[in-house]
Amino acid sequence: MNYIRHLNGVFLKFSKDSRLNPTHISLYVGLFQIWNNNRFPEEFYINRNEVMSYSKIGSKSTYHKCIKELSHWQYIVYYPSHNPFKGSRIKMFNFETSSKQVVDSHSPKNGQALVSINKHIETNKNINKLDQPKNENEVIDFFKKENWPKIEAQKFYNHYQGIGWKVGGKTKIVNWHATARNWMLKAEEIKTEKTQKGASQNQDNLKTSKNKNYNEPL
């Protein structure tokens, strides 16, 4: 992969995305550096402290918020780990641009190469394109391939169908498959939290001795 063309492509995408703030970009650059150090594998594991150090992010809550939003907005795919001895997993997308500049046919030969305005309009249309499944059955088939039950697929479909296939009811979904995977990850987190909560409630926290000597002073 040509990392210069990749960075040119992703920074062009950043410049057109009003949802991003400097912390998102700093975090992405930190993840890119780790990806680069690992020779650009399809997926790699991260250490939160290391990523926060690269990104100059001091707050854990800010880190978690930004990395989840980068995943929602299709800059990365984030697979959080609930195992303290195993890092979370990251998949990076290739935003590599063409090495050739697009030149407007009406631009002077000796002048600066200009990108046609029609090309910008077409690019913006692609960025704002809404992606959604054809019907509920397509969602059910996708969830089955990911080994998830039909009922969870129906929940996902009904939820996003009801809010117009937008994240948080505001941001258009550009890749519903990635959004569905994030739904599965969130459902897994909720399931784990319920299991841990149930286990703690079942513990006998009030243990007293049956052979207490009541002659002893309190």
What does the model show?
Residues 191-218 are annotated as: Disordered. Residues 197-218 have a biased composition (Polar residues). This is Transcriptional regulator. It comes from Psychroserpens ponticola. This protein has 218 residues and is mostly helical. The chain has two domains: 3-92, Arc Repressor Mutant, subunit A (Orthogonal Bundle); 128-198. 50% of the residues lie in helices and 8% in strands. It contains eight helices and five strands; from the N terminus they run H-H-E-H-H-E-E-H-H-H-E-E-H. A three-stranded antiparallel sheet has the order 1-3-2. The chain has a two-stranded antiparallel ribbon with strand order 4-5. The chain is globular, with a radius of gyration of 24 Å. Residues 99-125 have low confidence and may be disordered.
List keywords for this structure.
2 domains, globular, mainly alpha, Arc Repressor Mutant, subunit A, 218 residues
Summarize the topology.
Elements: H1 3-15, H2 22-37, E1 43-46, H3 48-55, H4 60-72, E2 76-79, E3 88-92, H5 117-127, H6 136-145, H7 150-162, E4 166-167, E5 171-172, H8 176-201
Antiparallel strand pairs: 1-3, 2-3, 4-5
How would you summarize this macromolecular structure in one to three sentences?
The chain has 218 residues and is mainly alpha-helical. It contains eight helices and five strands; from the N terminus they run H-H-E-H-H-E-E-H-H-H-E-E-H. The strands form two sheets. A three-stranded antiparallel sheet has the order 1-3-2. The protein has a two-stranded antiparallel sheet with strand order 4-5.
